[in-house]
């Protein structure tokens, strides 16, 4: 009797285990279905058909027109750069650049040899700014910069010393919000990136630097005040006169292009000889009802330092792409237990998954996606992820990067459309080149190739043959020095 009872108990336990196993299996299936549903919905919401991309481009063109009409008339600032004379490639001599945009600044010395020799030599020095100078007084900061510049200039080759009565010429890249008032002047609107020096807000920053240059006895004149996007156009234009625009796709994103002055109603100055003007679009602030925004984008924007602003930048630039992927993974962890019954704590940390990490996962070609597994372990402390989970991570990277790349292509298409270069008229095969810079474009290969193929798709075969994409790095340094050369006060003056 005891044996029978024991046998019945064993059978009952086995049956119960089967039922529990079936329940777990059923629960596991339901959870996985939820993961796939989240992925499917996200993919559909990020969809970028050619029709939608053309609508985005059209909306961009409308905003460009509005921004050129009057100040504040558009979400695109369409800032007049006062650069109406881009490098021709003929420039010769020695020029300097100062690139100030963060906790370090760079000084550059560039030797130009004209059409035949191009950029002969580039020397550069990076200087770290002591933290106390970032919140002190303007004269302390600019005195420090001027002193460092003077030290750098002291190693200048003897044969390039300026003639008596002349000053060295400097291109100044100042990567903070500025209201430009001429090619070589502009008032600071506000500081960012850890700087907070109240006494220079609303003042001409070139004037502040000039006072310090004079104080240390450095005979140097700022001939061009620019931002890095305008510098990208100049850098590319020096070696290729077909360049019409520059685009930065990096941590942030922006574009500048060459516009006809008669298409800028808000320009009230003298019409330049060139008839052209470089416009700094500040396109990161673009938004449109045609942009494919998701709940994750809206949550990212709401939690950002500038909610409601820079919407376009938040869906296509390197600062944000990795965090969008993280936010979708977090929802999968919370609602479908993709990483087990507890949400990995690190997954809740904003920006812990950076875009370079996302790129590495996206480019993982190993059969077991070992790079993906290692990234999930090292960054998010998630061990032993199954292959199907790693595949989900790669699919998310693909959805986010494809959306960003295709929207970037649509925006470039918008510039070409505004300039009438999106079609070939009467067999005119005039070449138009877009110069690109930034880590996203340079290092995220799948993003770059998707962007380029989408632009070809938007243009069609015939027009595509007239449009070129060119990598042009260091517009903030070399580009600034080249603009100092093209804006030189000594152009056409005999050296003797």
Automatic annotation (TrEMBL):
Q: Which family does it belong to?
A: Belongs to the hexokinase family.
Q: Which PANTHER family match?
A: HEXOKINASE (PTHR19443), PHOSPHOTRANSFERASE (PTHR19443:SF64)
Tell me the ranges covered by the Hexokinase C-terminal domain, including all copies: 245-485
Q: Which UniProt keywords apply?
A: ATP-binding, Glycolysis, Kinase, Membrane, Mitochondrion, Mitochondrion outer membrane, Nucleotide-binding, Signal, Transferase
| Main location group | mitochondrion
Which part of the chain is the Hexokinase N-terminal domain?
Answer: 40-236
The UniProt entry, under PROSITE patterns, shows: HEXOKINASE_2
Q: What is this protein called?
A: Phosphotransferase
Gene3D superfamilies recorded: 3.30.420.40, 3.40.367.20
